[in-house]
Specification:
Chain A is 44% helix and 9% strand. With 137 residues, chain A is mainly alpha-helical.
Chain lengths: 137, 137
DNA sequence: GTAGTAACTTGCATTTTGCAAGTTACTACC
DNA sequence: GGTAGTAACTTGCAAAATGCAAGTTACTAC
């Protein structure tokens, strides 16, 4: 165990709220998990099959970290065999604002991006001049 | 050289705007660089001395990536010896919304965090009962 | 006894970080 | 001419994080 050398005031990098928020959810996967949970996903299995295909060990690790951070909670939804469900806390749900800002920026600046909801209602439409009817993924 | 296997529609992970935005700035440092640039920093040297102490090679790498992504631009501000200055593009400046959402969440949920501006005007140790004229942001 | 399912864990190989020191190209001073 | 200083990077590793595949546990169903 290694408490990790921290900043004079107990922060890992600085007292900046941005830096500290990034230390909790500033990686490529955490916010996607939050996104899916805001969309109603609750179990490990449901979270596993996102369009981004998160690796199983990463998902397990992130769920642990998010729980330790108080952003989500884990409870058994059945015993025999025990199965767990994850739920967003108020703290976690409040990250919705951050997600919205990211969606907004992405849609404004990265061509052809579509939210999961949009993609669902608009099955297969995209960039011009490319005809292919491939089915896999 | 490996163009990296991409998703059928040309996206690295999925067409989700959140996933794609995270692929550009979803790491621990990029948004801190943007934060500093929004606060007026322009040179490599200025960006180096943030309170978070970004490693030199990481800063160089991120500046390159952000430039390739069209979020910042690099131009020489003097020759003999040549020195460069970085500037946010509209695309980069537009990340301000994301930063604001992160600041908001951080301040609401991580105790004792303070923006750089606040920390500057209140060089004091953290204390719950501290009252002072609050400035902007 | 065989198969299936949910929720993870484990073992590596590959990538990304982070730290420290080195490099390049000049200007300024003695 | 020689030493020092400065800005903007680069290089060399060691250490940590990521990603892939396969394995595990604890049950239910047939």
């Amino acid at each position: 165990m290694k408490p990790r050398a921290e900043t004079s005031e107990g922060f890992k990098r600085s007292p900046c709220p941005i830096a500290n928020t990034l230390d909790l959810v500033g990686d490529k996967w955490s916010l996607l998990i939050i996104r899916d949970m805001l969309h109603g996903k609750r179990t490990y299995g449901e979270l596993l099959d996102s369009p981004e295909r998160i690796p199983t060990n990463i998902l397990a690790d992130r769920l642990k970290r998010l729980e330790q951070a108080g952003i989500i909670s884990r409870t058994a939804y059945q015993a025999h065999p025990v199965r767990y469900a994850y739920a967003l806390s108020d703290k976690g749900r409040d990250l919705g604002d951050v997600l919205l800002a990211l969606v907004g920026w992405g849609k404004r600046h990265i061509p052809h991006t579509r939210t999961l909801t949009e993609a669902a209602s608009d099955p297969e439409r995209r960039a011009p001049a490319r005809r292919s009817a491939r089915k896999r993924e």
